[in-house]
Design a protein that fits this description.
498 residues, alpha+beta, 23 strands, seven-stranded mixed sheet, six-stranded mixed sheet, single chain
Length: 498
Amino acid sequence: MADYMGALDSGTTSSRFMVFDHAGNVVSIDQREHRQIFPQPGWVEHDPVEIRDRMFEVINGALAKAGLVAADLAAIGITNQRETAVVWDRSTGRPLHNAIVWQDTRTADLVADLGADEGQDRFREKTGLPLATYFAGPKVTWMLDNVEGLREAAEMGQALFGTVDSWIMWNLTGGVDGGLHITDVTNASRTMLMDLSTLDWDGELLNAMRIPRALLPEIRPSSEVYGTAIAPISGVPISGILGDQQAALFGQTCFRPGQAKNTYGTGCFMLMNTGTKQVPSTSGLLTTIGYRIGDQPTVYALEGSIAITGALVQWLRDNLGIIETSRDVETLAGTVEDNGGVYFVPAFSGLFAPHWRSDARGVIVGLTRFATKAHLARAALEATAFQTREVLDAMRADSGVELTSLKVDGGMVVNDILMQFQADILGVPVVRPIVAETTALGAAYAAGLAVGFWNGLDDLEANWGSGGSWQPQMAGDRQEAFLADWKKAVQRTLNWID
């Protein structure tokens, strides 16, 4: 068997291809950004053609950097930004609209109409999800209603829909020449169109959102051999698909009920493995699919989704210009001892877990003439930690499990100020793995299990190792004061949109 595994990670702001060895070490990586398109306030789009092109570029780039060829890969896995909706033409492969990104809020009126009589939890029993602009199903409905000719093409089976994994899979297995139109259970569980119990598209949900079944991909497990890739990795099996946050759960080897991870990326996402049992949330969390390996029982999870964390640092860089690179935020924040009484609630797309308030918008509160851009930078970092604390409190309430530590990963975990404040505000140790980018690693693990590159979950657990930890140091009364002010700040965001 070949010596390496590959993982294609198509994220919200960039795509990358990573190559791993049997020990889970990174052998090579190539990464390219793609554009963020903002047609009007609240709308966020991507160009699917650009995402497709970046996919091929990063595969070539990572292989070239390591001096590898396709034959050196035992298989590849795919992981992706979830909830982002793509529609394209079956015969031409041409996208029929820009991808509508998970952060997009244009479906607010549609979501309100869907919940008008029965409320936000109308579909929660089947889907585990509240009605929110976050999920892919309403985005599809919007495109069917607003893209000329799309509904007719969908009903005739000429148009195809998928989350980003489906778009990548279709193109990587041949596109118009026999490309596979599939998704996995984790991505399907984020559409609000799949029944969590049957793992199939649900007629009631499709009817409510007026979506033809012919538009939808086939739902498959997260780990099995789906098919083989075309150039530049011709013949390499594609054998794993996981939505990015489930991939991180898998890469962090959270295989036992009660184990949890938090990923710090564009947004922030905490998942807890609940085993083969669905745990309904009464505290504002999502009940979702964790993963499914072949024909083994499905593993479920509780999830707290936060829309804006790393994206807030990008906003400071790109919109305000107070830092030149994202790395500069830690240096700037480190020039002050605390936030100076400034709190930043980045409800740019409303508030996600545990509030689920689409009427909220971002606020900066507590400003005085004492405040500087350094205090704003520190408040931006602390916003991630405060939002994570809210999710952890909800997770404790739903699961009855007291976490003794939190595994963390993603791009922001290199920020020591953030990680220390996170440990302080949670009151539990925060632990970073040796391989911090566990999203791609999880996709590689899922693919490798399907082809026998790894023999089982014990193999994967043996690869995990701590790459650093932070212990809580903040006194309890100070922690409570911080949290009280944060909660007041959150209240200021509400009811902004009528």
